[in-house]
Amino acid sequence: MITGGPLLLPIPDEPTVAIEVRFRVGSSEDPAGREGLARIVARMIGAGGSKRRSYVELLDAWYPTGAVPVVAVDREWTCFRVRVPREHAGTAADLLAEMLVSPGFREEDLARHRTAALAAIRHRLRWADDEELGKAALWSLAFAGTGYRHPPTGTVAGLEAITRRDLLDFHERWYRFRAVSWGLAGSVPPGLVSRIERALSDLPAGPALVLSPAPGPALSEGVTAILVAKPEADASISIGRPLGLRRGETPFYGAALATSWLGEHRSSVGRLFEVLRERRGLNYGDYAYLEAFPGAGANQFPPPGVIRRSQLFEVWIRTLANPCALFAIRAALAEIDRLVERGIPGRDLETIRAFNERYRHHHEASAMDRLGHALDDLAFGLRTEGHLARLRRLARELPADEITEGARRAMRPDRLGIAIVTGTPERLASALARGEAEAPAYRTPKPPEVLEADRRYLERPLVVAEERISIVPVEEVFER
Q1: What confidence tens digit (pLDDT) does each residue in 55-72 have?
Q2: Are 190 and 247 in a shared domain?
Q3: Nearest partner of 306 among 390, 247, 389, 383, judged by Cα
Q4: CA 397 to CA 399: how far, in whole Å?
């Protein structure tokens, strides 16, 4: 929570004002049987009517400002963001407060948002985005039995069960003045801070929030796999393990630099990209992540507001032919093993240091980005030096052995989860249980050093006990 008032980031020459209001609640607090409620409530606030005005009337009121609010719901936080020209900041603040304090929760808006959420699961996630489906399956495997199991969109059964009464009860419980944090960035006009403070003070006071316990990973020692059976699909793979590190801790930044060497999102110079795409042409890209990155397929940089008490170290192996799937997993694990044992090769370390010292500035390209990351820093308790600034500094200063130690703590495959969306689930399950894999059948000749590396990758053990392999038909994914 922000104490002592809102977060202010004055940027005198900025012609716009960025406003962000956050609530300390996300999909992990969805009641059992109402999975998707947190997101539906937020969507109803951000793209629905207030008690005073219908959604169409609110859109008409927003129109002169040239903006509408953007809503983001993650596992533990819900964010409302809007960026407007300075001269319209007061109007935007009033409208946003009206939506937050007194949402209308009309039945017709509920029907509209429920239909959209059901389509997002039944049509887009299951049938149009295998890579995001693989990531979601990994989190459902890693956090089975917890509030992290389902994506913020929810489940089909949960969405179908939501009533207007559920919306009202959820809003009353979680949208309290004590649960709110907010900030402004840009050329903030006089009086705007007090104007927003007065408006948000109309939220219910109530007692302090009681959050659910931090979700603990369900992955036990060894390897566990989930195969999503999707007819005729190539293999989309996500692998990961519980992280156990947190922003602000020095080992986290050692792990961050090591993860950067394995492969930044959409980077063409990471080690995994080099091994799987550049040398072998197996797929489009291969990347590693130290924290959750929702919507990665549509974004270059991880969004702010994704603050989770439990995280995974993840590797995303983008879609490739099914016969290559287990080879690609073994190759990625072998490269991680080598990184944990030996660290970043000396010839690459200085490059990674320089890259991280400069590249992280792109995460804060706009006033809205800067505000979001600053609010993240406060949520993590980083009040003197923010996360991105600390990463840039430690990229220069952190000794090589501490980078290796961070990688060891983040990446050792002691509790490994594997999720594969595939059209050949039985074949892959059988090969995993027998510890088998085959070398890729290349369409063009490869040099001897690549073929020799293939042999070494295939020697990397990967056996999953039959009872720890589950096959789930795609039609049943997030059904309930």
Answers
A1: 999 999 999 999 999 999
A2: no
A3: 247
A4: 6
Which tens digit of pLDDT belongs to each residue from 382-405? 999 999 999 999 999 999 999 999
Q: Is pLDDT of 1 > 80?
A: no
Does residue 194 sit in the same domain as residue 287?
A: no
> Which amino acid is residue 127, in one-letter code?
W
pLDDT tens-digit readout, 12-50: 999 999 999 999 999 999 999 999 999 999 999 999 999
Q: Calculate the dihedral angle through the C-alpha atoms of 449, 453, 456, 460, rounding to the nearest 10 degrees.
A: 180
Q: Domain for residue 86, yes or no? A: yes
What number of other Cβ atoms are within 10 A of residue 195's Cβ? 16
Instruction: Give the whole-angstrom CA distance, residue 295 versus residue 301.
Output: 10
Q: What are the phi and psi torsion angles at 415 (to 5°)?
A: -135, 90
Per the document, the length of the chain is 480
Question: Same domain for 169 and 296?
Answer: no
Determine the pLDDT at residue 420: 98
Please write the tens of the pLDDT for every residue from 452-478: 999 999 999 999 999 999 999 999 999
**Among 64, 75, 77, which residue's Cα sits nearest to residue 20?**
77
- Name the residue with tokens 């949960």: 158
Beta partners for 9? 185
Distance CA 127, CA 404 (A): 40
Q: CATH number of the domain that 268 lies in?
A: 3.30.830.10
Structural contact between residues 152 and 73, judged by C-beta atoms closer than 8 angstroms: yes
Residue 381 burial (C-beta neighbours within 10 Å; 0-12, 13-18, 19+): exposed
CA 429 to chain centre: 28
- pLDDT, averaged across the chain: 95
Q: Could you give the C-alpha distances from 13 to 8, 17, 189, 367, in angstroms and in order?
A: 15, 11, 12, 11
CA distance 406 to 412: 10
- The Cα 126–Cα 133 span in angstroms is 6
Burial of 423: CB neighbours in 10 Å, binned 0-12, 13-18, 19+: middle
Q: Which of 169, 200, 231 is the last residue of a domain?
A: 200
Count of domains for the chain:
2
Q: Which residue has the tokens 């042999």?
A: 455
Same domain, 175 and 288: no
Tell me what pLDDT residue 5 has.
64
Tell me the DSSP string of 143-183.
TTTSTTSS-TT--HHHHHH--HHHHHHHHHHH--GGGEEEE
* Domain match, 299 and 384 both: yes
CA-to-CA distance for 358 and 72, rounded, in angstroms?
Answer: 27
Residue 70 lies in domain = 7-200
Confidence of residue 3 (pLDDT cuts 50, 70, 90): very low
State the residue for tokens 């929810």. Answer: 154
